[in-house]
Amino acid sequence: MARRGKKLPALNGSAMSDISFLLLTFFLLTSSINTDSGIQRRLPPPSDPNVKPPDIHKRNTFVVLVNMNDQLLINGEPGDINSLKDRAKEFLGNPRNLPNLPEKEKRTIDLLGQVEVSKGVISLQNDRGTSYQMYIQVQNELTAAVNELRNDMAKEKFGRKYSDCNNSQMAAIDKAIPVAISEAEPKNVAQK
Question: Which residues does residue 182 pair with via DSSP β-bridges, in sequence order?
Answer without folding.
Answer: 123
